[in-house]
Amino acid sequence: MEDHIQQCETQSDALNQKRKVRLLHSAPCNHKGNRKRETRSNSIIIREPRVDRDQRSYSPTVTPNTKETRKENARSRPHSVMSGKTSSSDVWSSNNDSVSLYISKPGLAKLTTVPNHCGLSRSLTWNAKDCCYWGSTTVTEQLREKYHQRKLKKRDQPGSERQRSKGGVFTLLDDEKETKQVEVPGQAIKRFRTAVIVVKLVIRWFEAITENSYTKTPRTAAEHQYYTLYTSLEAQKLAFNKNLFVREQAFARVPKWASHILGTEPQERSESDCRRIHALLRGLKSFDKFTEQIQLSMCKSFSYQRVKSGRVILRRGHVGFNYYFIYSGSVFVNIEDVNIDGNKFDRTVSVLVRGDAFGELALLQNIRRTASITCRENCELLYVDKETFAKVCPQIFEKEMEEKEQFLMSLRVFRNDIWNKEMLKGLCADAQIQQGKCSVIRRLELDKTHHHRKKERHSTPVLSDEIINIITNINKINEDEEEEEEEEDSSDEEATKERMLESMALDYRRDGKRKKMEEKADDNKEVEKKKLMSLTGPTTLTSLMTQDKKSKDGKDYIYVHIGELKKNEIFNFYAILYPSRAPPHSSVILVSTGSTLMRIRRKVFFKIATREAKALANNVAKLERFVTDEQLLEAYKEMASWDEFKYRVVQESVGPNKENLRKKLTHHQIRVVHERRERSHKLLKTLEKNNKIAKKIEEKEDSEEREKRNKMLENLRLKQKSVSEQQFQLCKIVRKDRNDTVIGRRTVTSSMTSAQPVNPVLQEIRDVRDAPALDCLPKRRMSRRYSQTTSLGACLPLPSDKPIPSNLSLDYK
Ligand SMILES: Nc1ncnc2c1ncn2[C@@H]1O[C@@H]2COP(=O)(O)O[C@H]2[C@H]1O
User: To 10 degrees, what angle do helices 760-769 and 782-793 make?
Assistant: First the structure.
């Protein structure tokens, strides 16, 4: 806009130099002052206007609408020309130096000149009944001077009527009544500029807030690893984000029509609009739990918001105003935690995705936000305000609360006689329902004898990288801590246990890949990450294992899957209640795989529980049976030896693969191969000899000899047959040794492998098969050459001068 104005100013300066005021009128206006369609026949062009100061009216010079005048007008017309229909109160203006047209009444036009520099404006009026403004003009120096003088004069006059516009542009009002109210075009531009500045400032302010939200908010470990993986291009290449290709994602965008409806005021939304929005949102998990009536009333008042990845939507401790639904994208739920050193840090407890909702706790209980919500991916949110929420939602949440209460009542720990309704309500209010499966993993310390064995194993009992959120630093529990103190403090153990639950909604696969990315990160990031790690402890299985390896105690740990959490079971209850009393084997990890959990905070539990309730919990917890470390170790040993046995059997029956073979080839073996090769040469020579004999016999013609010859031929054929047989077998063995997957006739049974007793004939054939090549090749390429040579071995030459009888099969290829 500013550029445009600048351009116009330059143009008008140029026109100023010509000292010419040009006003062009062409198409006539109708009686309302609106411009009629231009018809050449009756249009007029007004040029070189004369301003009659006394009459305050404009007397244009009328020139005929000829071809020449039109051409000249076209040339002189600046870019800033505005044209179009005029109506009452329209202001046409191009820039501050231009003469503008203001239609105050139908058929009455006011001309306002606004000199650029001195800030003066001049209103002129003329009858614009049949006129249309087509051009721009400039105020002459002389005119400007006069205006200036007149302005000063007017200012000095005590009773003079003078108005000062908001934009600071003066409007000299004429004595005549019709010129009293004049809208100054320059003023409009000024206002526009002010508006632009305000908008710019607001945008900058928002940007600053957004920037703060990104940079000043400390990230949790989960956030950090997510952004490390999925924000850098390099990382994206390495980590394939399958979610980007999930079908649902393609459709999970609020369509344009819906965002348009959601952008309107609630009172402007029609019944059908609400129905359409309702149809769109049906199927969202947390939306579906409301009755249709509530859903419709929500649709009436929904607002729509897009939030970019990394933005903080809610901050813990803030006052709650809205209740949010996630239409697309996902968010992190972060709470504050305390680490071993007593430092506070943010920890991701959950990831909410499309269909989830958040922000109800603060509204329902009239408290501050209990957690911070940060955008994980770009999100589309729909939210209702506090008032609407208060009107429609509480019934639903009451129902949900009842369900939670019912569930708690079904548990032994929350017996009716000890836990009254109020207490249960208190628990349920804070409790979160979380989705996830619950495999229980435990860290097991291996003894020295098993340290060795473990290395031999080719599979570990650890589930996989999916098991990520691990409890740590169990050994550092301060055992002297008083029980009561522990109840109050959110101690390390509590944090540890909470971290177990953390695992339930995170994307473990991605987390697992984090380590690789960490290695690639720059120094600053490394430092940051180390700081983060020191706060939160390792968050991936890989990092935990690395830590275990590095630990100075020299102990060897493994992670064992010890079972599944069943319905109505409480996870590691005793250790959660009394961390200091818990045996060291309580290093248990809960791994999410698909069930629904209710998560009660230990702190809240102790806050609400009475003495009896605590005693009851204690009793229940004591009934919990965990396998001991010894039992686990025993089971592990058995498993390890079973694994070893299986491995050995497989090795023996399948034989060494190509890679292993290459590694295992010793000098001795190479020598053996040489010897075999020589023997195969000998065999070939014998074959050739036989062929020569056969030729000689054929040459002899007498009948006596013929019989002999026939016999010999028969013998030869038999020999040929046996050779081809040998070659066939040789092929098979060679292929088997190459570890090829051979289909149909090529398939070699395990009876042919080295693990089986060796047939002397086959042994001979083996000699042949390994004949060429291994000697002259570098070790690195041996296996390849080996395969080449073995395939060559399958094509050993046969006596070619006699056609092979049909009964001799060479169908071994
Ligand atoms: N552990 C959690 N799991 C999932 N959502 C949570 C958890 N803790 C808090 N929230 C949500 O985060 C919101 C933060 O604001 P509120 O306290 O209003 O309401 C909170 C819940 O909706």
Answer: 120
